[in-house]
Amino acid sequence: AALCAASSTAFITPKNARVSRYNAGQQVPSRVMAATLDTPTTEADAGPSVMRPPIDFVWSDVASQLVEKFGYSQAEVDMYDGEVDNNKDNLIKIYKALQMARGFENACNQQYMQGKIRGFMHLDNGQEAIPGLVDYAIKNGDKKYSYYREHTHAIASGVDPGAVMAELFMKETGTCKGAGGSMHIFDKSTYFQGGWALVSEQLPYAAGAAKSILMDRALGISDDESFEKQDVAPPADDDRISIVFVGEGGAQNGRTAELLNSAAKDNLPLLLLVIDNGRAINTY
């Protein structure tokens, strides 16, 4: 996955990024590749491959970007270095999120095959690293916007798994009282809005949500317990962001350019999470 933030100049390009072209029917030699957070990708051969290379974000490059582009202090960056690898509790928290995501989607698949879940359903098996990241790093007050493959994104954002499953079963106890189904999971208490059926439709809403965070600070207003606006300023350390998920196909949609332009222009507190899972059915 690639992490993009508000600054249009702050991007890390994978060191091994390239485009491989081959003719239909041409035999493609196999390759073995490995990547870690500490060392660049190594390749067994230089032949073409039908598979994209693994993301190669070396931590030293990420750390430099945080300081140079986003204004983090070196002390703050040092605090993040080793925060997970050297902390058993943090590792267990992430592992539980991964297990929950895989188990939930497996259960959905079983129930769908038995005809108990009807309609369209898009599963997220194999993408557990994304909900693991969300569960670990994103806060409840952050505004989350996902697309139609959003079951695990919702659960990682704090939405009750039982309510998500009930929504798939069209039960009144579901997040939308059974009216939304698989592609429309919404939960006000966790600021989760997911399941737009049209590709990239969620992106402009996320930009608007990020703008609303800035307006809250400027106007001195915040949400009360009923999620209605009140004349109480956000806390001084308000660090809320808007996070939006999109696939690599949707990332090529024109809305993505509009989103990044708006984010850069107004310095929006926005995190664009591009899930490069190879599932796009077309390119632009």
Polypeptide structure, described:
With 284 residues, the chain is α/β, with parallel strands linked by helices. It has 8 helices and 10 strands. It has helices at residues 59-68, 74-80, 88-113, 129-137, 151-156, 161-168, 202-219, 254-266; strands at 2-4, 33-34, 42-43, 143-147, 186-187, 192-196, 222-223, 229-230, 242-247, 270-275. The longest helix has 26 residues, at 88-113.
Task: Give a brief outline of the structure.
The two termini are about 20 Å apart. With about 280 residues, the chain is an alpha/beta fold. It contains 8 helices and 10 strands.
Name a few traits of the molecule.
two-stranded antiparallel ribbon, 34% helix, globular, alpha/beta
Secondary structure layout plus pairing:
Elements: E1 2-4, E2 33-34, E3 42-43, H1 59-68, H2 74-80, H3 88-113, H4 129-137, E4 143-147, H5 151-156, H6 161-168, E5 186-187, E6 192-196, H7 202-219, E7 222-223, E8 229-230, E9 242-247, H8 254-266, E10 270-275
Parallel strand pairs: 4-6, 4-9, 9-10
Antiparallel strand pairs: 1-10, 2-3, 5-6, 7-8
- Indicate the proportion of strand residues: 5-15%
Percentage of residues assigned to helices: 25-40%
Q: How would you describe the shape?
A: globular
Elements, N to C (H/E): EEEHHHHEHHEEHEEEHE
Count of runs of 4 or more consecutive helical residues: 8
* Strand element count: 10
Ends: how far apart?
A: 19 Å
Task: Please state how the strands of the largest beta sheet are arranged side by side.
Answer: 1-10-9-4-6-5
| SS class | alpha/beta
Return residue spans where pLDDT drops below 50 for at least 5 consecutive residues: 1-36
Mean pLDDT: 82
User: Mind summarizing the main beta sheet?
Assistant: 6 strands, mixed
Q: Give Rg in angstroms.
A: 20 Å
